[in-house]
């Protein structure tokens, strides 16, 4: 006797596939149009903004690099974002390991405080951070912005690393202790490599946020010579509107988004593995 196939699951899969395709179009089309526009001249923009460029001319990228001093902005971003990502990764891993592996009074409370920090709007700390950096003479310094990024990244990073360390069996650390390792050796040589997926996850999340941040970079680092890439892009935007050099503006946008796209493509598998192993499943 033949059984009727359920129509519900088929429709559900079809609806999900349709929504995913629609979402992909909404994401890919603006990126493709931005890249296409970065090769067009101003005359081509006024003629037809949707038309393909006549040639793959890199003049717009050269103009954006020279006009907005994007080379200096990129160097500043690499120094600040790189230092803050590494500092956050080390501190978050050490804190999460101590909370999950050492049984001391207040460990649970400390872990809950970091979780509560996930729900605190970051904008609430702008004025206190501004006053603290001024008193410590760290305002308008790269070190000051590095510390700000590190502080703001800690709640999410500690939460993810706590979830990762909780999934690791304690037999690894116990075996290392029996072999004569101290706590630091167990952490750096045994447990930290096992939590690599979590480290990759927090590194990618923090990099994407800090690389594209404008508010805190503009607030805590206003000097022209210390501008990060998003702040420099805003300068390029204002200059492009006055000079009507739209090609240079879109070239600057491509330069800003290129590292984020490349990093996500290269590490998407590790990112998904880190989120799954850390218990953050969609």
Task: Describe the protein.
With about 280 residues, the chain is mainly alpha-helical. It has two domains: about 5-45; about 60-275, MetI-like (MetI-like fold), CATH 1.10.3720. The chain contains 13 helices and no strands. It has helices at about 5-35, 40-45, 60-65, 70-100, 105-115, 125-135, 140-165, 170-180, 185-195, 195-210, 215-220, 230-245, 245-275. α4 (about 70-100) runs antiparallel to α10, α4 packs antiparallel against α12 (about 230-245) and α10 (about 195-210) runs antiparallel to α13 (about 245-275).
Assembly category: single chain
Q: What number of structural domains do the residues give?
A: 2
Mean pLDDT metric: 83
SS class: mainly alpha
**Secondary-structure element order, N to C:** HHHHHHHHHHHHH
CATH level-4 homologous superfamily of the largest domain: MetI-like
Fraction of residues in helix? over 70%
What descriptors fit this protein?
MetI-like fold, 2 domains, 282 residues, disordered C terminus, globular, mainly alpha
Would you summarize the structure shown here?
This protein is 76% helix and 0% strand.
């Amino acid at each position: 006797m033949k059984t009727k196939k359920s129509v519900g699951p088929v429709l559900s899969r079809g609806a999900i596939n349709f929504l995913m395709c629609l979402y992909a179009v909404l994401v890919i089309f603006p990126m493709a149009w931005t890249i296409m526009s970065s090769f067009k001249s101003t005359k081509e923009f006024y003629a037809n903004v949707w038309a393909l460029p006549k040639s793959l001319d890199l003049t717009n990228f050269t103009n954006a690099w020279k006009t907005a001093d994007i080379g200096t902005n990129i160097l500043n971003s690499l120094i600040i974002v790189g230092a803050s990502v590494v500092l956050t990764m080390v501190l978050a891993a050490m804190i999460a390991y101590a909370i999950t592996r050492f049984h001391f009074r207040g460990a649970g409370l400390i872990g809950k405080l970091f979780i509560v920090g996930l729900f605190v709007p970051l904008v609430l700390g702008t004025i206190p951070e501004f006053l603290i950096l001024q008193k410590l003479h760290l305002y308008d310094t790269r070190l000051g912005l590095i510390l700000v990024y590190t502080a703001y990244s800690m709640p999410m990073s500690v939460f993810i690393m706590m979830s990762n360390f909780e999934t690791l069996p304690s037999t690894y650390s116990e075996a290392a202790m029996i072999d004569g390792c101290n706590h630091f050796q167990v952490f750096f040589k045994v447990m930290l490599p096992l939590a690599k997926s979590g480290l990759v996850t927090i590194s990618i999340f923090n990099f994407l946020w800090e690389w594209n941040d404008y508010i805190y970079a503009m607030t805590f680092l206003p000097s022209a010579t210390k501008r990060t890439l998003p702040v420099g892009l805003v300068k390029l935007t204002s200059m492009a509107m006055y000079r009507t050099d739209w090609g240079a503006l879109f070239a600057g946008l491509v330069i800003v988004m290129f590292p984020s796209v490349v990093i996500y493509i290269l590490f998407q598998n590790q990112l998904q593995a880190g989120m799954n192993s850390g218990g953050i499943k969609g």
